[in-house]
Predict the structure.
Amino acid sequence: MGVVLGTDELWQVVDRERASLADLLEGLSPEEWETPTRCGDWRVRDVAAHLTIAARSTYRSVLRDFVRAAGSFDRMIHDSAVREAQKPGTAIVADLRSIIGSRRLAPTTTPREPLLDILVHGQDIALALGRPRDMPREAARDAAERVWTMRMPPRPWPLPRARLVATDIEWTRGEGEEVRGPIAALLLLLTGRPEAARECLERTGAPLWSTGE
């Protein structure tokens, strides 16, 4: 079950999310740029830099980075973000603002990957900084549906063995123990961020994972 956004509407959400995240980043102190996130070993600056790369890449640059990473897709993503993150924060913000309105996609991806990226990584940054950042419910549902059904590019996270039920919008997937929560928290759970999902619940005042029992 899941209602997906139309392509034009999807890109409008991506543009709004990129703009609002750029506004958040623009006011960060030097110390905040170095804040660790729950996204591996990435700091806020690494996550932010990662979000600027796909829409500015060419097939040639992607191939070069893939070769540099010895054929590892995960290493390519990691290392390219860390390299871009060496820029000053002002340059990272400028790069993010420069791709507002861009419709360029990384190879093998669909327009739903930029949506998934900006929603989830925007939360990685906001939660690390202790800043509120709302996630639009319809967009979060679209991203959750994409994670659940994606085959290419390969999904890097295992799906939860549970029946996921959104409490703030119509969306249900999976089988097993029933887990209920706002769609934003379920999206974080789906993308391998259980602790971030709990933080998201706590900050919105919602109860921690509840079951149908």
Summary: The chain has one domain: 7-204. The mean pLDDT is 87. The two ends are 22 Å apart (CA to CA). The domain at 7-204 is CATH 1.20.120 (Four Helix Bundle (Hemerythrin (Met), subunit A)).
